[in-house]
Design brief:
- By secondary structure, the protein is α+β, with helices and mostly antiparallel strands.
- The chain has 5 helices and 18 strands.
- The protein has an 18-stranded mixed β-sheet that branches.
- Helix 2 crosses helix 5.
- The longest helix has 15 residues.
- It is globular and about 55 Å long.
- The model has no long low-confidence stretch (mean pLDDT 96).
Length: 287
Amino acid sequence: MKLPFYIVDVFAEEKYAGNQLAVFLDAKELDSEMMQKIAREINFAESTFITVLQPENNSAEIRIFTAEHEMKFAGHPVIGTSWVLMNKIFESQRRTLKLTVPIGEIPIKQSGDLVWLQAAQPQFLDIFPKEGLLPFSNLSLSDFDSDFPVQEVTTGSAFVIVPLKSKKALENLNLELPKMKEWLLFHCKTNHRALYFYCFGEGKLYSRMLYIESNQIMEDAATGSASTCLQAFLLKYHSAEIKTVNHQGDFINRPSRIYFDGKLSEDYFDIKIGGKTQFIAKGEWEV
């Protein structure tokens, strides 16, 4: 069995930046075990598998896998897969797409060279004392932005949002594996456990996403799902409207740019993130 596949860089202003993604077509015959094996072989942050494709309805269904497990929702795989479908697979270029992932249907729109997704309504989970992060980090209390809480937020995948006061604190951040793992396992409400640190520095929004995989602390170059949670967090606590660019990956030499366009009206969160995708390669995978 042979599967066509594409490799792209997502949330990337140019090639060899942003977050890598492998997109596999014609994957409806694969079982979960095989998808997981292929994702582990690719070893990107995520790989996607297109299981249903309906060009006549501008729709598709996909499954998303990290090297270790399946995800219910993840932003850069949704953006990158949508770009591949609209620019490489469909015979005529489309501007809208309905992409279904395990949490449901995600509306997609392409405007110029940006692909945008509309996120689900957020859930704001527990607020944590900042002192709890000190034992597994090199942070001091003065490094936290005291105007905002540390809180777990989800729009499909959950992240603990951690506001820092300066770009220097974000850049110099260092975490200790055993105590971080213990804290995440004890405090996080879902099976997806990760920390999303951010700050406003030099008039820009900067962020870093750190998580544990294969018993190592890993850092993601660009995290769309975390960005939807951060946007919800900023709409709730910072401003009822936000249009900005989230700079992620700068400290690991994979600069990523995630565009924010959000608005909070009464209790409704209109959360949209967008990004550019760069085509890298295509090929054929033999199963």
